[in-house]
Design brief:
The strands form two sheets. The protein has a seven-stranded parallel beta sheet with strand order 8-7-6-9-10-11-12, with helices on both faces. It has two domains: 114 residues, NAD(P)-binding Rossmann-like Domain (Rossmann fold); 176 residues, Rossmann fold. With 325 residues, the chain is α/β, with parallel strands linked by helices.
Length: 325
């Protein structure tokens, strides 16, 4: 058994639990009768943490409890639940699970988009409720001739953009800066891009820097024929502004996989018939979740062996800097 000790705050997929336990001494905090007592006893020895996006937020006040902490291996491409900036300043590397979920999230995005534009869930209900016997289903909007704007042209954003091109759509994008190798038109402001596109897809990281990027002004710019798709984080959109825009028909529709306070979806959204809601299933297939879990394990295993992390996040490049006093 390795002398490297790893902490897991709450249950993770069996593949992760078993894999971490095989390469280190694993402490399962959720099994402790007295969690604080357990933390007090093991904190001085913990060198690794395995966690997921649905777990508690980890700021400096939590990470600082572990004086020997070297790595936080996180399940998911998003890591806004971890204060990676603090970790980087204290010599702690943070890893996530990019790339293995790109195709799955892009597929979900287009499934959601097609469902919104062609009203596929509504059509399904129409048949099941026997209404087709009385009248044909109403004509819907179309993808034809639309421009898709990508908010966040990262790995997943580019995968979504390629799918949009395959559907014959024009693609534009907005982000913190223009990307020299991107073959799409860049807009320096989000409102400017919203005015130029018919479909706005949010796939940018969460966190304070992107909170409420999609606000009332952006939705107003998107316009009455516009469609908003959010497969990023609920925090990226001002949810109350979105509800108002949908209620007043200032945008055509929306497709949401994420919300401000999951799993609590506002009643106003649930009661609207002209949008499509998913329960945060962007990467939710067994194949992809297994690949994500294996990367959590592989990051820890590689780090413990001395080869370094496989997928460190931007705020904690490898090799890590010396821990601050």
């Amino acid at each position: 058994m390795s002398d490297f000790e790893t902490l897991m705050f709450s249950p993770m997929p069996p593949l992760v639990v078993e894999g971490v336990a095989a390469c280190s001494r694993l402490h399962k905090l959720w099994e402790a009768a007295d969690r604080e007592a357990m933390l007090a006893e093991i904190a001085p020895r913990i060198r690794g943490i395995a966690t997921g996006g649905g777990h508690a937020t980890m700021g400096g006040e939590i990470l600082g409890r572990f004086p020997k902490l070297e790595i936080v291996s996180s399940f998911g491409v998003g890591y806004d639940h971890i204060d990676a900036t603090w970790a980087g300043k204290h010599g702690i590397v943070v890893t996530n699970t990019p790339d293995v979920l790109n195709d799955e999230v892009a597929d979900t995005t287009f499934g959601l988009l097609l469902s919104v534009v062609r009203q596929l869930p509504q059509a399904d209900r129409y048949v099941r409720e026997g209404r087709w016997l009385k009248a044909p289903f109403p004509l819907t909007a179309s993808l034809r001739g639309r421009t898709l704007g990508v908010l966040g042209l990262g790995r997943i954003g580019r995968t979504i953009a390629r799918r949009a091109e395959a559907f014959g759509m024009k693609v534009v994008y907005h982000g913190r800066r223009a990307q020299d190798d991107a073959p799409y038109l860049y807009y320096p402001t989000l409102a400017g891009m919203a005015r130029a596109c018919d479909i706005l897809v949010a796939i940018t990281p969460g966190g304070p820097a992107t909170k409420h990027l999609v606000n009332a002004e952006v939705l107003e710019a998107l316009g009455p024929n516009g469609i908003f798709i959010n497969v990023a984080r609920g925090s990226v959109c001002d949810q109350e502004a979105l509800i108002a825009a949908l209620r007043d028909r200032r945008i055509l529709s929306a497709g949401l996989d994420v919300y401000a306070d999951e799993p609590n979806v506002p009643r106003e959204l649930i009661e609207m018939e002209h949008l499509v809601l998913l329960p945060h299933v962007g990467s939710g297939t067994k194949h992809t979740r297994d690949a994500m879990g294996q990367l959590v394990v592989d990051n820890l295993r590689s780090f413990i062996s001395g080869r370094g992390p496989l997928t460190p996040v931007a705020e904690t490049p490898w090799p890590a800097t010396r821990r601050a006093p």
